[in-house]
């Protein structure tokens, strides 16, 4: 079967054949142990393609073998604040069991990478379960690796907080009443300066890489964010001084057929830590997510960043896990170097 002819296309969500293939492969993905082991609700299958067609930052890649649906990759555009460039998040990557080890996944990923390069993206990112060894092997072969800044801090883990219909009561810090937060207006000069200050300090922090950002990035990042319709940022202030920053990007959950919020950066200035700054910013983010009909918040956190993990746990986040035997989800990336 290794020599089968594999055809790969960018899905047209308005094409009935593509829509049926997407629904079929997505449901098989859900039924697979690495997708949760249970079929999707019919109401999700009935509307998923229509919902994807309404998401301007979405695209999907389908693979066919002898005109039979063989694989699916669902992708969503994101953004790298440290590079001031877009990226592609590979949200789903699935190959039908009978077509595995036939080069299907490699061909789909090549198609995704070509689209990413056309759109000026700096990297591809994805989440993979720690125990999904076949997938990890395929991703390694394609050039992916676990996201890591410092071996002492470990790799990045993928966490989530599902948004219940009724918000949970989250405890506040002793001094949280002194913290104010604001939804950033990227066109406001003062807000832009505060964002650049916070982002630069975050990059210099060990959990941000420990090195200053290139001045070119700092000079362009706010303007670039202003061009990203699925971006929003929250700034925190203590006594009028910038104290924290959260940069967020809308994503999408294909298994829920609803948007989500990816918390891309979450940083608090060292002198304002343990003052409830992070908690208040996350409350603001969650309020925006609920207003936009999102089903959950997601983020990546370094395995060794124990203070951050403690704060996220307290806020209701947990590591993404489907089956303890497969472990939690790891965050991986492939940087796209010039050809």
UniProtKB/TrEMBL annotation:
A Pfam family annotated for this UniProt entry: Acetyltransf_1
What InterPro entries does the record tag this protein with?
Acyl_CoA_acyltransferase, GNAT_dom, YpeA/RimI_acetyltransf
User: Which residues belong to any copy of the N-acetyltransferase domain?
Assistant: 11-164, 182-337
Q: Which UniProt keywords apply?
A: Acyltransferase, Transferase
Q: Does the keyword RNA-binding apply?
A: no
Q: Which CDD domains match?
A: NAT_SF (cd04301)
List, alphabetically, the PANTHER family matched.
ACETYLTRANSFERASE, ACETYLTRANSFERASE YPEA
Protein name per UniProt: N-acetyltransferase domain-containing protein
């Amino acid at each position: 079967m290794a020599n089968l002819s594999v055809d790969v296309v960018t899905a047209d969500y308005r094409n009935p054949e593509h829509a049926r293939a997407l629904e079929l492969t997505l449901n098989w993905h859900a039924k697979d142990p690495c997708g949760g082991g249970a079929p999707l609700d019919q109401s999700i299958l009935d509307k998923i393609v229509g919902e994807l067609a309404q998401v301007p930052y979405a695209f999907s890649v389908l693979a066919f073998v002898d005109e039979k649906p063989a694989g699916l990759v669902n992708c969503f555009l994101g953004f790298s604040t440290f590079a001031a460039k877009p990226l592609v998040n590979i949200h789903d990557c699935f190959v039908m069991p009978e077509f595995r080890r036939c080069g299907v996944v490699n061909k789909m990923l090549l198609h995704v990478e070509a689209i990413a390069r056309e759109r000026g993206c700096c990297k591809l990112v994805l989440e993979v379960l720690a125990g999904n060894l076949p997938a990890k092997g395929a991703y390694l072969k394609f050039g992916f690796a676990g996201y890591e800044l410092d071996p002492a801090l470990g790799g990045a883990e993928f966490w989530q907080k599902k948004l219940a219909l009724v918000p949970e009561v989250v405890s506040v810090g002793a001094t949280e009443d002194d913290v104010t937060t604001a939804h950033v207006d990227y066109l406001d000069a003062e807000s832009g300066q505060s964002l650049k200050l916070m982002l630069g300090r975050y990059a210099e922090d060990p959990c941000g890489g420990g090195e200053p950002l290139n001045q070119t990035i700092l000079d362009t990042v706010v303007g670039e964010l202003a061009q990203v319709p699925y971006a929003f940022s929250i700034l925190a202030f203590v006594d009028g001084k910038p104290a924290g920053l959260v940069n967020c990007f809308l994503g999408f959950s294909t298994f829920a057929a609803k948007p989500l919020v990816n918390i891309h950066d979450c940083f608090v200035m060292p002198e304002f830590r343990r003052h409830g700054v992070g908690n208040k910013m996350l409350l603001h983010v969650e309020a925006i997510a609920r207003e936009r009909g999102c089903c959950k918040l997601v983020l990546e956190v370094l395995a060794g960043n124990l203070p951050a993990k403690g704060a996220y746990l307290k806020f209701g986040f947990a590591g993404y896990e489907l089956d303890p035997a497969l472990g939690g989800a790891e965050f991986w990336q492939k940087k796209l170097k010039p050809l």
